Amino acid sequence: MERLIEILEEIEDGVDYENCTTLIDEHYLDSLAIISLVAELEDEFDIVIPTVEIIPDNFNSAKAMWEMITRLQEEG
Amino acid sequence: MTYFGVAYLFMFLPLTLIAYSIVPQKHRWKVLLLASYAFFWSISKKLIVYVIGSTFLIHYIGIWLELLQNERNGILKEAEKEQKKKIRAEYLKKQRRVLTFGVLVNIGILLVVKYIGFIGGNVNSLLQTLKIPFKLQIPKILMPIGISFYTLQAVSYLVDIYHEKIKADKNIARLSLYLTFFPQIMEGPICRYSETAMQLWEGNKITYANLKSGLLRISYGMIKKMIIADRLNRFIGEIYRNYAKYDGGIMVAGMVLYTLQLYMDFSGTMDMVIGTSEIFGIKLPENFKQPFFSKNISEFWTRWHITLGAFFRDYIFYPLSLSEPLKKLTTNARKKIGKYYGPLIASAIALFCVWFCNGLWHGAAWTFIFFGMYHFVLILSGKIFEPAVLWISAKLHINREKAWYKGLQIIKTTLLVFVGELFFRATTVTSGFEMLGKMFTNFSLNSFKDGTILKLGMDVQDFIIIAIFTILVFVISIMHEKDISVREKISKKNIVIRWTIYYLIIFAILLFGAYGINYEAVQPMYANF
Description:
The structure holds two protein chains of two kinds. Chain A is mainly α. Chain A has helices spanning 2-11, 31-45, 56-59, 62-75. In chain A, α1 packs antiparallel against α2 (31-45). Chain B is mainly alpha-helical. At the A-B interface, α2 of A face α12 and α13 of B.
């Protein structure tokens, strides 16, 4: 989770990633930021994020992202 | 029949509401479906055959996709672990073929109906330029109303089944209602099946609260459309038609006021659409969220025609930028040019496709393609220069969170939007450039001083009325931006104040609405896209 927060801060600084639950809804992360984020997450956590996972529910908070990452890792 | 016409407001809508409320709940969807087909028929007549035919096709393709998924799941249950990957890949391929067929048929019809004249005309121009003595005969094809909106909803339905986000609807009547619901068929919003299909089917009761709230939203839309947008119509038409006759001052007025007209027309129609649906207890997605408070062009497009932007994002941008070849490109580019600019290359390719489609979706003309490319360049350059802007801001100790900085960003964005809309409305790209050029080479306020401005289809009274109601919309927008619901505030007032407001709204529309013999009937501007 800590590494995830670091990645998020590298992509878009100045957001309270620990507590924010509206990263997509409030446009803290736009679609270009999502592409960078997906590339970074796939690299870092050795997962493949399919298009179908790119929904606000999976990216609105760091917690939701972490849950998606863990799930994709388990699914292998 | 249009949403702001007498036939719709005083006949069609009330009759539908009455029929809807007197039939038992389980039959209400039939009233909505019948009304939707009647509405479509009233405008596009025999082209209703297109809607019926394509609904059957979409229904069949949806079920076909789901059958393949069920078949795959059945085989997977019995399969050995090492075989599963192969089976999944095999069925994905089959599904992709079915989806491609369904999408291509739908998009193909849209392309033929909407773009054949444009493509044929350009081919003929090219043949003429090359002095080839051959001319294509371009057939005149009638375009069913709302085909651009309808097609995108159909595509989203099929893609969502393919991605297993939703199940195929076995009930063709429900699918048909989702595709043709009368308040939204003409101008959207572009809804997803998961957002509206079940709501439309439920047959919710018409409550007093919904009726009151829906009517208020409709009346707000009427103020925007009938008092502001339609009043501007003749003035804007004259400037864009005969721009060569006027100076740069008039060009600026034409550019700014056209943007105002387009916003009031389209967002006003959305108020009408969403308000009407609210009466039936149906919540449609919002299409506007105070776009003129955006700090950059990317943000603007998350606040203006939201459902179109979301469609392109979810069904073109992400699938393209996360496709295997572009993912590989991103991985390689990140290693070579870094974590910021690396992913930007793949994004730029996807973004180009999005904005090309966005421009073309708006209409079969070079002005629309230019409009799309203009936004592509603005959004991409915004991203390219973002690190430099941040670096300069830090060096100059500029606090980007300060109100003055945000204010400057909003002004910059608004100016860029004005220019984009100028080309959007211009008769040709060349005339758009000529109009823009006049603002710099032939700028003068003489037309305002000598009264020319008042001879273009609007008098002083028109300008005053537009100014007053634009200020009203601006104040309401500020309240919405602060999450204050104006309708809720009104509903909490005592009965005297409440009804005074209702009467004021009715009288304002009756007195100041631009209708009658002095005004041209104005078709909703987005209905032709």
